[in-house]
Structure to design on (682 residues):
């Protein structure tokens, strides 16, 4: 069956505008294969079922929608955390601004450098987990990323890293069209925390593939940058081995358009996967459309998965949650949990949620819930009656609302850091 | 200090008149009690004074130290020195009691042009006041009123009052749901705050609280009006004969 002509045209139009970077054999093979996937799937189109709630047009079109560079006044998130920092400016690795890449138990290489080699360990993962994640639902923007990314980092974790790796994505030009592709391979018993922050560019297409071997642990905490006009489509593809742990948390404030997809496969028994997110949007300071799309596949026994997503929306902000738990035949003793909640601060904002369970095993415990609600007026009055001004009282309740998602961050210092940035942002917005 | 004149209040949502002309003056340093049967409008009066939404003042006025209360936002009334100990304190999941207290104290100080309390000074103060009310560290850490027993909620109200040092304290049925010991604790907390510069409006259904917090004046509210005022003896009369006799008397 051929693709609809419109979709085909849009795809070819975009492909004609991209340049597939020169690279060594392993990487150029992966890129060619990815190009093939893009051609056969076609890029997302407004009529695609998976894009029902989010318009893909600005993510797909060849022209980059410009985005003003956002000047933050506060010190950046994670500044108080002891970490190894790598800086990318408009999608180009900046070694001058970055730390030395030596970290015990961890090998770190920029993608463009590793890509020049003819053979590399990343060959087994780069584009491989992305390709696995194309079924049963297509995610062609991720394949496009695999085809043309020339920035990113390849990380191999053989031991317990003694500090987190922090990837900072700075945005400096209004038309920066940025593609970043990261691969993380956590070997047996390895343990790494990856921190990401910054908007990356005017338009960011980012993919991270994470393979966590038996007994490995991977923690991921990111904040997506407060630039009002930026657009982002991000994908995390994770594959989990036996008794491994994968935990990911994302904080989003501002951003005209954000689509965050997490595609997680639990392939070894007793694995644990948590994904969480807190998104706060105010339509008064520009468009805000935030979409969390999660697909978790249980394909082993006694695994646990947990999704906790919170959105605070006002002045016409839009939040989307599409979350699926697929429990395959034989994935007994699955413990799956999913909650998505929105706090609507006015009648103009909306939250669209599509929670799904698909279960082919009989001995499982899966639950999901989705709620949408206004702020508790009784609580608000109680706080105000003690002299707390309405805006501060509202923010206290906003923070209380998203705290459940931030609590998913296991490292207390990092969680406190994220919380304090959020509070600083709220405070500055109040003026 | 508090001057209420001919206050008429109806509900916003439905055309129901609740207060039908309340006149009341509370002087600094005095304790006034309001007693009255359920549904007579006591809580409504306390809510209207503290600025809760949902009510419409159709006539009359309410002033605190000459400032028009009814024109102010709830938080402005608090900063002006008004405090309501709620009949039903509200649970606020996720907001720590301590964070709440510090935010409130500092917001009021800021509104009054005073410097904010340092974290250390605040902590010292809160520990001292909490101790007197037998509020432990755990209660201070927990989210506001969440999972508190009835007595704990009421003690928490008095703690807030002690921290905020208001000019006019309204206590709405602070005795309800308290056993004798808890009532003693709460009454001691209130009495410790009695001061020449501070006025109290103590709303209660029963006389027993007034054994501990002895009022200067007792008012009886029936059907949205104060129908009778008198000295502490009036509370005893209610206790002995119920409201029916007073209602009959004034009818
Ligand atoms: N928000 C409201 N909605 C409906 N009825 C109300 C509301 N608030 C008060 N009332 C009514 O007003 C009357 C007075 O209530 P209230 O002030 O709570 O009395 P009290 O505190 O003296 O028991 C009652 O009849 C009560 O049902
Ligand atoms: Mg009442």
């Amino acid at each position: 069956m051929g693709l609809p002509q419109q979709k085909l045209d849009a795809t070819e139009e975009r492909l004609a505008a991209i340049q597939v970077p020169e690279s060594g054999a392993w990487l150029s093979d992966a890129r060619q294969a990815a190009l093939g996937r893009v051609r056969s799937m076609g890029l997302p189109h407004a009529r695609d079922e998976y894009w029902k709630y989010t318009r893909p047009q600005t993510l797909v079109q060849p022209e980059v929608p410009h985005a003003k560079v956002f000047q933050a006044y506060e010190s950046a998130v994670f500044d108080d955390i002891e970490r190894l920092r790598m800086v990318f400016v408009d999608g180009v690795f900046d070694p001058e601004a970055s730390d030395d890449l030596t970290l015990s138990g961890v090998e770190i290489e920029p993608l463009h450098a590793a890509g020049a080699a003819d053979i590399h360990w990343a060959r087994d993962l780069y584009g491989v987990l992305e390709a696995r994640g194309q079924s049963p639902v297509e995610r062609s923007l991720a394949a496009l990323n695999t085809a043309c990314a020339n920035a990113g980092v390849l990380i191999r974790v053989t031991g317990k890293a003694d500090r987190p790796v922090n990837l900072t994505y700075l945005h400096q030009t209004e038309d920066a069209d940025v593609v970043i592709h990261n691969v993380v391979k956590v070997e047996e018993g390895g343990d790494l925390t990856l921190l990401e922050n910054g908007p990356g560019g005017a338009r960011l297409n980012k993919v991270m593939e994470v393979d966590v071997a038996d007994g490995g642990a991977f923690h991921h905490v990111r904040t997506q940058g407060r630039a009002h006009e930026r657009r982002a489509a991000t994908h995390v593809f994770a594959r989990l081995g036996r008794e491994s742990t994968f935990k990911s948390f994302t904080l989003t404030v501002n951003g005209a358009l954000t689509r965050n997809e997490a595609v997680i496969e639990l392939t070894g028994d007793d694995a644990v996967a948590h994904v969480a997110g807190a998104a706060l949007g105010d339509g008064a300071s520009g468009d805000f459309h935030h979409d969390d799309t999660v697909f978790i596949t249980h394909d082993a026994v006694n695994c646990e998965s947990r999704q906790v997503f919170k959105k605070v929306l006002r002045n016409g902000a839009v939040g989307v949650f599409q979350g699926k738990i697929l429990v395959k035949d034989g994935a007994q003793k699955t413990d799956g949990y999913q909650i998505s909640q929105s706090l609507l601060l006015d009648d103009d904002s909306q939250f669209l949620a599509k929670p799904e369970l698909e279960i082919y095993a009989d001995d499982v415990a899966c639950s999901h819930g989705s709620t949408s609600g206004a702020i508790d007026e009784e609580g608000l009055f109680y706080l105000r009656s003690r002299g707390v001004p309405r805006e501060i009282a509202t923010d206290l309740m906003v923070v209380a609302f998203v705290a459940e998602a931030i609590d998913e961050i296991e490292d207390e210092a990092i969680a406190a850091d994220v919380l304090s940035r959020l509070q600083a942002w709220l405070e500055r917005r109040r003026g | 200090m508090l001057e209420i004149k001919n206050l008429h209040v109806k509900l916003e949502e439905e055309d129901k008149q609740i207060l039908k002309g309340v006149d009341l003056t509370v002087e600094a340093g005095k304790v006034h009690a309001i007693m009255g049967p359920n549904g007579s409008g006591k809580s409504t009066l306390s809510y209207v004074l503290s600025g809760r939404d949902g009510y419409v003042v159709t006539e009359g006025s309410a002033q605190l130290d000459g400032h028009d209360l009814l024109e102010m936002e709830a938080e402005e009334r608090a900063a002006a020195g008004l405090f309501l100990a709620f009949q039903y304190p509200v649970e606020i999941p996720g907001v720590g009691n301590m964070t709440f207290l510090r935010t409130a104290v500092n917001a009021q100080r800021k509104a009054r042009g005073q410097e904010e309390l340092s974290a250390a000074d605040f902590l010292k103060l809160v520990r001292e006041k909490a101790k007197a009310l037998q509020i432990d560290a755990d209660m201070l850490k927990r989210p506001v009123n969440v999972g508190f027993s009835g007595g704990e909620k009421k003690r928490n109200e008095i703690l807030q009052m002690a921290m905020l040092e208001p000019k006019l304290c309204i206590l709405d049925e602070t005795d309800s749901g308290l056993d004798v010991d808890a009532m003693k604790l709460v009454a001691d907390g209130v009495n410790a705050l009695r001061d020449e510069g501070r006025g109290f409006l103590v709303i209660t259904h029963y006389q027993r609280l007034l054994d501990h917090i002895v009022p200067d004046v007792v008012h009886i509210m029936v059907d949205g009006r104060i129908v009778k005022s008198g000295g502490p003896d009036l509370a005893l009369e209610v206790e002995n004969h119920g409201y029916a006799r007073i209602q009959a008397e004034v009818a």
User: Anything to note?
Assistant: The pocket of adenosine-5'-diphosphate (ligand 1) is lined by residues B 11, 18, 36, 38-44, 54 (CB under 6 Å).
